[in-house]
Amino acid sequence: MAAVQGGLADTNEEKDIKTEPSNDGFGNNNATDGRVLSTSPGSSASAGINKSAAGAPEDQQTLLAVLQFLRKNKLTESVEILRREAGLPEDSLELKGSDSSGAGSGGAAGSGDKEGGDASALLSRVTISSSAAAQAPTKAAGEDQPDVNVVLSAYNQQGDPPLYQVYYSGLKKFIESVLDCHRAELSQLFYPLFVHMYLELVYNNHESEAKAFFEKFSGDQECYYEDDLRILSSLSKREHMRGNETLMDFRTSKFVLRISRDSYQLLKRHLQERQNNQIWNIIQEHLYIDIFDGMPRSKGQIDAMSGSLAGEGKREANKAKVYYGLLKEPEIELPLDDEDEEAENEEGKPKKKKPKKDSMGSKSKKQDPNAPSQTRIPLPELKDSDKLDKIMYMKEATKRIRLGPDNLPSICFYSFLNAYQGLTAVDFTDDSSLIAGGFADSTVRVWSVTPKKLRKVKSAADLNLIDKESDDVLERIMDEKTASESKILYGHSGPVYGISFSPDRNYLLSSSEDGTVRLWSLQTFTCLVGYKGHNYPVWDTHFSPHGYYFISGGHDRVARLWATDHYQPLRMFSGHLADVTCTRFHPNSNYVATGSSDRTIRLWDVLNGNCVRIFTGHKGPIHALAFSPNGKFLASGATDGRVLLWDIGHGLMIGELKGHTDTIYSLRFSRDGEILASGSMDNTVRLWDALKAFDDLETDDFTAATGHVHLQDNSQELLLGTYMSKSTP
Question: Is the pLDDT at 476 greater than 60, yes or no?
C-alpha cells in the first residue's frame, strides 16, 4: 500500500534505481502478493485481503479514503458492504473525516468506476500495489508469458488523468531548459515515459484523455519509434491490451537508459522539487537507469545506440569474456606436389571439400590467446575426406590473390528464372559447387552449378554387387541413371524460410513456416530427420562451421541449438523480446549470434547458454548477420538500410556503413575478411573495404567503460563498388 501513499516522501537513494527489479523502488515489502490479488473482482479471495488491508495503519487510511470517496459519490450501499467486510467500526468514517490526506491518491484510483457496483472490485484495484510489476522480473519475458493480469495490474496506481499532460509537458520544459550536454541524455526519457503514461491512461479507461495525450506528444518522439507508436495508437481500450505481445514485452522488461551521474542528479532534483510523483513512480518501476561516471554522451552517440524495443543493453551485459579467437588448425602434412593423386581424389570424392576457415588461421600453428580451448565444447573428429579438403584448401590458399580496393573479386550473377513458386531462401556451398533454394510452395530445390550432375546413391540391392575394394568405389556407388542438374526435396508443409549446407556438403538443413527444421541427405536426396521444437514458423537455421551442431530461430522468440543426432534441442537461448529473424555460428563454433525484430543482436555462449553480448543500434528488425573470418568482428544488416560493425571482444559498435536505401537481407565476408558484400532490397549489391573499416580503429580510443564510441562518417571512402541487379533484390 505504501505505493499509493509513498510517492516521493521516502527520498530514495540512487541504489533503488540501480538494483534489480526485485525491489520496486518504494521499499514495498507488501505481504500481499500481486499474483493472489489479481483474482477476478468479487471472488472470495478479496475478503481475505480486506482483513489484512485494514490491519496496517497506512492501509487503513487508504481504505478510509476509498470509503469517503464512495460516500462523496452517494454510493452508500457500497460503503456499508466495504466497511463491514473490512471490520471497521461504524463511526470510523466520521472520526477520520478530517484526516483525508490519502484521499487524493486513493480517490483517483477509483475514479474509473463511477457505478461502483462491486465494492470488492474497487478494493482489489487499490490493494494491488506496484509490487505486481516487480514480481515479473525481466527474464520472464522469453521463457514463459507472465500472467497477463499481474503484468497489466501494475498500471493500476495512477494519478489524476487530466494532469498527465501537465506532468509530461512540465518534464519536457525542464529537459529543454537544461544545458546542452545534459539535454541529449535526458531526452532519452521521453519515449518510455510517453508509452507508460499512455498505457496507464488506457488501462484505467480514460480513453479521451489517452487520445489527447497521444496526439499532443506522439510527434515529439524519435522517428525510429514510428512503428511502435503505430501499434500503440491502435490500443485505445483496456481490452486491447490483453494478448498484445509488443505491449507485454514493454511491460515486463525494464527499459534501459544509460545516463551520466550528473544528468541523473539534475533529473532527480527536479522531480523531487516538483513533487512530480507520477513520473517518478514510472521511472522507479518501469525504467532501469544505468548510471555511469564521466562526461555525458552527445546526441550522436546516443542516437547510434538507441532504437531497440527495450532501450540499450546494460553495460554489465557486455562485460563477460568472449573467446573470439579461432581454434588451432589440426596438424596436416602437405604432400609434395602429387598432382596425379590429387586429381584422382577430386574425381573420387565428388562431394567433399573444405570447411570454411580463415586462411590466416591455417598458416599460424600457434594457439590464439583469445581462442577457446579445443575441448571447450565437443567437436566432431576430422574424417579423412575433411583432411583431403584441408590439403586442397591450403594449396589453393597459396595461389590466391589478395583482394582489396585495387583487386575486386570477379562477380557472377545467377538468376532464378520462372521462380513462380516464390524463392524465399538461398544458400551456396563453400566451394560454390551447389546452390539450394527454399520456396514458398514448401519445396527445397538443389542445383549443381558445375558441369558435374547430381546423382543419388544406388539402391541397397545394387550396392551389394559393388567391389568394395576397388579404388573408385565412391564413384561406383552413385547411380548414373539418376543424374540431373537439379533435385526437388518434398517434405515441408509451409514456405521454407531458412536453408543451410553442412560444411562437408553431405547434408542440407531447411527451416519452414510449419515449425520444423529438416535435415536432408545430399547422397540420397531424402529427408533424414524432422526436428520439432518450435511451435511457430522457424525463420532461419545455420550449420556450425565444424558441422554436427546447428542453430534455429523463429517466431517463438527462442533460438535453439541442436545436434544432428539428437531429436531434442541441446540449448534454448531465450531473451529476445520478438521474433528471432536470423542466426549465425561464430567461426570457432563456441558462440552463436541471433538477430531479432526487437532490433537487438545477442551473442550466446554454446557451452552454458548464457547471453554474453547485447548489441543495440539498429532502428528496425535485423535480417542479416556475418562474422568476420578471424572471429573478431560481427556485421549486421536490418530494415533501416544500415550495416553496423561490432567489435565482439570489447562489446562495442565500431562502424556504420551507409549507402543502401532499403532492407539488407544478406551479408558475407570474403575468405580473407578483406571485403564485405551486402545485398539489399534496393536491388543492389555493395562491396565494402572491411580491412580499412576495422584498421582505422584505435583501440585505446575506446572508453569501453562508458561505451562512448566516435563513429567516423566515412562510408563513402569504404564503398568499393555498387552492382545493380535486374531489378530483383
Answer: yes
Is 448 within 8 Å of 436 (Cβ atoms)? no
Across the strands, what pairs with 600? 616
E strands in 266-415: 287-292
Q: What is the DSSP letter of 298?
A: P
Instruction: Locate 218 and state its grid cell.
Output: 506522439
What would the grid cell of residue 687 be?
562491396
What string of DSSP letters covers 466-485?
S-TTSTTHHHHTEEEEEEES
Q: What is the CATH number of domain 159-297?
A: 1.25.40.500
* Residue 131, CA distances (Å) to 5, 13, 442, 537, 720 in order: 14, 19, 48, 35, 56
What's the whole-model pTM score?
0.71
The domain spans of the chain are 159-297, 423-724
> CATH class for domain 423-724?
mainly beta
Residue 36 in grid coordinates: 493472489
Residue of 337, 386, 413, 682 whose CA lies nearest to 545: 386
Q: Which residue has the higher pLDDT, 358 or 465?
A: 465
Q: What is the mean pLDDT of the chain?
A: 74
Nearest to 575 by CA among 607, 602, 540: 602
Contact 128, 153 (CB under 8 A): yes
Sheet with 719-724: strands ordered across? 664-669, 675-680, 684-689, 719-724
102 in Cβ contact with 61 (< 8 Å): yes
Q: pLDDT of 7-29, one tens digit each? A: 333 433 443 443 344 434 344 44
Query: If 0-12 CB within 10 Å is exposed, 13-18 middle and 19+ buried, where does residue 620 land?
Result: middle
Closest to 549 (Cα-Cα) out of 574, 515, 583, 597: 583
The string of pLDDT tens digits covering residues 529-576 is 999 989 899 999 999 998 889 999 999 999 999 999 998 999 999 988
Identify the CA nearest to 5 among candidates 279, 281, 299, 191. 281
CA distance 526 to 521: 6
Confidence of residue 40 (pLDDT cuts 50, 70, 90): very low
Query: Is the Cα torsion angle 651, 652, 658, 663 positive or negative in sign?
Result: positive
